[in-house]
Write a structure and sequence with these properties.
This protein has 104 residues and is of the alpha+beta class. The chain is built from three helices and four strands, in the order E-H-H-H-E-E-E. It has helices spanning 14-28, 35-43, 45-57; strands at 4-8, 61-67, 72-81, 91-98. It has a four-stranded antiparallel sheet with strand order 1-2-3-4. Strand 2 (61-67) and strand 3 form a beta hairpin. Helix 1 (14-28) runs antiparallel to helix 2 and helix 1 (14-28) crosses helix 3 (45-57). It starts with a strand and ends in a 6-residue tail after the last strand. The relative contact order is 0.22. The model has no long low-confidence stretch (mean pLDDT 92).
């Protein structure tokens, strides 16, 4: 039985956040986005990971779900303050990505 841990992301999680993002895009949007664009996203995981690391180090909030048995990050959520001026004290979910094998 798999067990999961929900926690705030740390800078060292950046590669796996980029991995989850790219591979989820690859499967979720294959019917919508050209294969070449999706492959480029997967091929640029290392560069995207550096940007993600910088975001985390500069206070951007990511939550992740880690499979405790495998130490694999299987889900990520990017959130931040509301961009809607009518809700200055609220937050906003910007992105949620779940690896395909964990989507149910």
């Amino acid at each position: 039985m798999e067990k999961f841990l929900i926690r705030k992301a740390k800078p060292e999680d950046a590669y796996w956040i980029a991995f989850v993002n790219a591979h989820t895009w690859y499967t979720a949007y294959s019917w919508l986005i050209p294969e070449k664009v999706l492959k480029t996203r997967v091929d640029s995981i290392n560069e995207r990971a550096e940007k993600t690391r910088e975001f985390i180090e500069n206070g951007k909030e990511y939550l992740i779900i880690e499979n405790i048995e495998t130490s694999e990050i299987v889900w990520m959520l990017f959130c931040g303050p509301s961009r809607n001026e009518d809700y200055p004290n609220s937050g906003e979910i910007v992105a949620i990505y779940v690896l395909p094998q964990y989507q149910k």
